[in-house]
Amino acid sequence: MIKILFILNFFLISLFSSSFDKVYTVAFLKDWKPYYITNNKGELDGYVYELFEEISKKTNLKFEYKIVNTWQEIFELAKNNKIDIVPNIGITKNREELFNFSQPTDTLKIKLFKRKDSYDITKIEDLKTKKLGVLLNNICNVLISKEITDNKIVLFDLSRAISSLTSGELDALCYPDSSLNMKLKELSLENKIVSFEKPLIEVKRGLGLTKENFDLLPLLDEAITDLKVEGTFQTIYSHWFSQKDINTISQSTFYKILIILVIVLIILFIYIYGNNKLKEQYKKQKKLEKKLNSAQEIAKLGHYSYSFNKDLFVCSKQIDEIIGIEENSVKNVDLWIKCIHPDDQQRVALYWASCLNKGVDYKIEYRFINQKTKEIIWVVALGEISRDKNHNPITMFGTIQNIDERKKTEEELTQAMMVFENTNDGILVTDKNTNIINVNKSFEITTGYSLKEVINKKPSMLKTDLNKDSFYKKMWSDLNTKGVWSGEIINKKKDGSNYYEFLTINVIYGINKEVNGYIGIFSDITQQKSDEKMLMTQSKVAAVGEMLGNISHQWRQPLSVISTHATGIKLKLELEANLEKEEICESMENINKQVQYLSKTIDDFRNFFKGDTNDIQEFTLKDAFSKLEQLTKDSLHNNYIKYETEIEDLTLVLNENLFIQALINIYNNAKDAMVDNIENSDDRFLFVETKVVNEKLEILIKDTGYGIPLNIIDKIFEPYFTTKHSSVGTGIGLYMTNQIITKQFNGQIFVSNIEFENNGKILSGAEFRIVLPLEKK
């Protein structure tokens, strides 16, 4: 849960800071006057450029311009997320899939143009049989239909279209009013080509933001509003769109307008001078209202007022969204109660009535049912009641906040705390300096220490001398590199007794990946370790009979040699035959060799059975398999089993005796399977192969005993499971192998039935695959 809160905090910080660090790509149309202008030097100008530069100053956001040739190219870049903002674009329904739009900044009028001397064209209906020109990638190409003209001519260039209109090749032309007027002025044709008075359509225009940049919209809207309030926007707009009107008015009219403007300016000056403070206050109020609205959106908070006389609520849109009702719907107490969860209605009504009677403000948490989505939403409602001189309620003002996420978080925290307190596993939490800050009840029961006794102390108070320094070094190495460590450890209780625990430690990270603390979760496995030790002993004892048989067979030959030499010498002495010194020495040498062999056999047997399970040391894989072969070769040979190996030249850091014991159990089961199932001794094989795969050691052991029945293959690693008579098998061999591989060596063991070819013959049997991690050097 702590991690979730940190991640949530990090997300919120990132959300509000990333907008100011990112450089946004702004698409700029190469040439579409007066909106977009690019001169021969590549410098940008025009209405869009001037306005957007002012917006960028207001927002403090970073931008870079990308010059494009056509609107089609802009749409392709937006689809592929290659641009972030189009600074001026028509606000249309079909473009909402690509863009979020700001508030409108201007209106584009689409008009029809004709030659001034075309007296036969006075209205749109006159164009039915006329040649009407449109540009390919222009909105006019969509607007002009068969209803307007039967002769729509599509052109690719505006200059060519104007030339065709002036020469008579076209009778009329459809194009945006402001752009064509500027082009006509450049060509000195403003007195030869005129527009129809009424536009075909008016298209509102504004900033277009690609969908992933929707969070910029409030910021840009606020900047546009500020520019309008300051008058900067009107200055820019007039500069680019009012030139034609000013240049075409007569001189006398100009002076009349000038006199009127002077009078108006004097009046305005007096008005502004007298109301300057009021205007400033209004601007501040509007800004505060916007900021308040943004804050309410973020906090999921809405405000309301209620008239007791009219039984009427007036509330902000945030409350409408919480309740799921239309903004213009009539809201009264009955509707309000209806939207409250049935289980909370009576409680809220009684609480509200109590507050009215006592004349106190109220604060209460309850649940709404959203009328649109039917979602249950927790809210906290606050209210203040104003009264008349007779103490009768007049109006109630208040706020309602969506606290659903907080409630869910509280519920999760409650559940987490219940788990923390009631789990059977001990839990210990420390700060970043490993000082204990909390433990649960299971920790206290297992260790004998209370929370009060361990608070602000180090977990090392539980440490024993049984864990080597290299053990703790490896633990901290894993925590520092991986953020987690798990394994078995021996710790000390308050009464001084030792206990085994399986411990998992996780690092608690902050939002900037700094270490904030550690949490350790452990289970007491002392009894389990005791049981494993007993089973280990039983497993070894079970193997004694097998091993004694091997030893008796290995001793038979050397004892025969010793007996032969001793009998020979004795016989010659009894017959008083001549005994050469050299002959006696040779016999004694042979006897000594056989005695040494017998001694080595005893040592191998003793070393196998005396091993300490905690004794970890380096040994070579080949040496281990050589010892394994010495312990099992006679048993395999006596049962006519051929033994083939491919062993890697590797060094392992494990308990060698446990390693050998784990494999002996597999060997013995393979031997028994082949003896029981394979009558033809020529088909009895035991294959052993080792290899390194992905920095792990794989050991493959396969036999030719026809495999393991499918109905028991999943049970063979269970304790005391056996298919043999109790006088023959104990059912703990493969269980101990599994425990050694998985628990002691942190490895894996798998078994499957396979078919394979050997010397041109198809054989089948069981294959054990052991996977062990290799110690990194």
TrEMBL record:
<dbReference type="InterPro" id="IPR000700">
    <property type="entry name" value="PAS-assoc_C"/>
</dbReference>
<dbReference type="InterPro" id="IPR005467">
    <property type="entry name" value="His_kinase_dom"/>
</dbReference>
<dbReference type="InterPro" id="IPR013655">
    <property type="entry name" value="PAS_fold_3"/>
</dbReference>
<dbReference type="InterPro" id="IPR035965">
    <property type="entry name" value="PAS-like_dom_sf"/>
</dbReference>
<protein>
    <recommendedName>
        <fullName>histidine kinase</fullName>
        <ecNumber>2.7.13.3</ecNumber>
    </recommendedName>
</protein>
<dbReference type="Pfam" id="PF13426">
    <property type="entry name" value="PAS_9"/>
</dbReference>
<dbReference type="InterPro" id="IPR001610">
    <property type="entry name" value="PAC"/>
</dbReference>
<dbReference type="Pfam" id="PF02518">
    <property type="entry name" value="HATPase_c"/>
</dbReference>
<dbReference type="InterPro" id="IPR036097">
    <property type="entry name" value="HisK_dim/P_sf"/>
</dbReference>
<dbReference type="InterPro" id="IPR003661">
    <property type="entry name" value="HisK_dim/P_dom"/>
</dbReference>
<feature type="domain" description="PAC">
    <location>
        <begin position="485"/>
        <end position="537"/>
    </location>
</feature>
<keyword id="KW-1133">Transmembrane helix</keyword>
<feature type="transmembrane region" description="Helical">
    <location>
        <begin position="254"/>
        <end position="274"/>
    </location>
</feature>
<feature type="domain" description="PAC">
    <location>
        <begin position="362"/>
        <end position="415"/>
    </location>
</feature>
<dbReference type="Pfam" id="PF00512">
    <property type="entry name" value="HisKA"/>
</dbReference>
<feature type="domain" description="PAS">
    <location>
        <begin position="412"/>
        <end position="457"/>
    </location>
</feature>
<dbReference type="InterPro" id="IPR001638">
    <property type="entry name" value="Solute-binding_3/MltF_N"/>
</dbReference>
<dbReference type="InterPro" id="IPR004358">
    <property type="entry name" value="Sig_transdc_His_kin-like_C"/>
</dbReference>
<keyword id="KW-0597">Phosphoprotein</keyword>
<dbReference type="GO" id="GO:0000155">
    <property type="term" value="F:phosphorelay sensor kinase activity"/>
</dbReference>
<dbReference type="InterPro" id="IPR000014">
    <property type="entry name" value="PAS"/>
</dbReference>
<dbReference type="Pfam" id="PF00497">
    <property type="entry name" value="SBP_bac_3"/>
</dbReference>
<dbReference type="InterPro" id="IPR036890">
    <property type="entry name" value="HATPase_C_sf"/>
</dbReference>
<dbReference type="Pfam" id="PF08447">
    <property type="entry name" value="PAS_3"/>
</dbReference>
<keyword id="KW-0812">Transmembrane</keyword>
<dbReference type="InterPro" id="IPR003594">
    <property type="entry name" value="HATPase_dom"/>
</dbReference>
<feature type="domain" description="Histidine kinase">
    <location>
        <begin position="550"/>
        <end position="776"/>
    </location>
</feature>
<keyword id="KW-0472">Membrane</keyword>
